[in-house]
Amino acid sequence: MKRNVEFYRVLQSHFQKDLIEAGCDEAGRGCYAGPVFAAAVILPVDFHHPLLNDSKQLSATQRESLRPVIESAAIAWAVAQVDNHEIDRINILKASYKAMHLSIDQLTTSPQLLLIDGNRFIPYRQTPHRCIVKGDGIYASIAAASVLAKTYRDAFMQELHLEFPQYKWDRNKGYGTADHRTAIEKHGLCKYHRHSFNIIKNPPHLLLP
Fold it and tell me: Which positions in this protein are listed as binding a divalent metal cation (predicted)?
């Protein structure tokens, strides 16, 4: 059987050696419902874990096993969210950057360089940053941030599922899967959906609290 070479690649521990780096990533940007989450992580320069990778390349079990390892080993870490109402107000891209900024705000150690997953970012104060496309599969700190953002968001969507089980958020986590779209067609949108995404035209009704 052919191995996924990308999965077994060892992540780089740092972008440079002179400044304190924080890796930043988000989770849930493309979802129909729920908040967007972001995490910022400062790892020791010698941190290594054989499973650590872009969270999308890991199983839910692997992500959950990595979460306490990252939290324990990190010099500093933080997770933040921006809810669907704010997403509708300022747009999802700005909301993703805001969630990253909020997570950086919470770090107990101030980073001197930010490694951002993706190709764009709104500068955080006077802290320099580097945007790295697919950085969660290249640098350990960004991969760690992707794991924390994803696991915290998944846990949050599991809680929302208990309030609105008809949307199957325990399985789809708010993404536009077939079962989620079918539930929206049947039940309409609820208070956690992102109305600015124009998910359906003329929804049959709106589910309130």
Answer: 25-26, 117
* CA–CA separation, 72 and 66 (whole Å): 10
Q: Say whether 88 counts as a known binding-site residue.
A: no
Three-class secondary structure of residue 143 per DSSP: helix
Is 117 annotated in some ligand binding site?
yes
3-state secondary structure of 61: helix
- Give the CA angle between residues 177, 173, 87 to the nearest 5°: 95
pLDDT higher than threshold 60 for residue 4: no
The secondary structure of residue 191, as a DSSP letter, is: T
Overall domain count for the chain: 1
pLDDT at position 202 = 55
Contact status, residue 194 vs residue 87, Cβ threshold 8 Å: yes
Model-level pTM?
Answer: 0.91
138: domain CATH number? 3.30.420.10
